[in-house]
Batch of 2 targets.
Target 1
Amino acid sequence: MLFKDKGSKNGLYIGTAAGLVLFALLGFFPSAMVGGYVGIKLAELIVGAPAVGILPRIFATLSMIGAVIFTGLVFVLGGPIAGWIVGTRFELKAEESRP
C-alpha cells in the first residue's frame, strides 16, 4: 500500500494545501502575465509588427490560459509530492526512534 501510516497521508494533505495557497498567491498572476507576453510576441512574429485584430488576441488568450494551467499543475502536483516525501521521512524517523 502506498500510505503506510498517517504521517505520509497527512504530509500529502498539507503539501496539497500549501501548493494551492502558493499557486494562488505566487503563481497565478505572474504566469498569466508571462503567458500574455509570450502570446503577444508570438502574434507579432506571425502577423507582423502592428499586431491589431482578433488573431493576436486569440494567441495572447490561449498562451495565458496555457501558462496558468501549466503553472497550476506544477504547484498542485509539486506540493503534494514534496509533502508526501517529508511525511514519509518523518514517519521513518519515528519508526527508527521507537525501541
Target 2
Amino acid sequence: METGWLVWGALVLAGAVLLRWLVEPLRYLGLLAGRMALGYLCLWALNLVGLAAGFHLPLNPVTGLVVGVLGLPGLATVYLLHRLYS
C-alpha cells in the first residue's frame, strides 16, 4: 500500500511541476487572444463606419492579430495592403 501513495505523490508533484512550467506560455497566449479580440472589435467598428464611405477590410485571424498587436500602425498596414492587392 505504501507504493500506491508514493506513486500518487509522484504524479501530483509531476503535475504541479508541469502546470508551473505551462502557466507562463498560456498567460502569453491569453494576452495574445485578448489583443486579437480587440483587433477584431476595431476592424468591425471600422467596417461599420466604412459602410457609408464604401470601404471594407477583411475580418480574419491574421488581420485581427496584426491590428491587435500593432495598433494603429497595424490598421494602416492592413488598409494599405488591402488597397494594394484588391
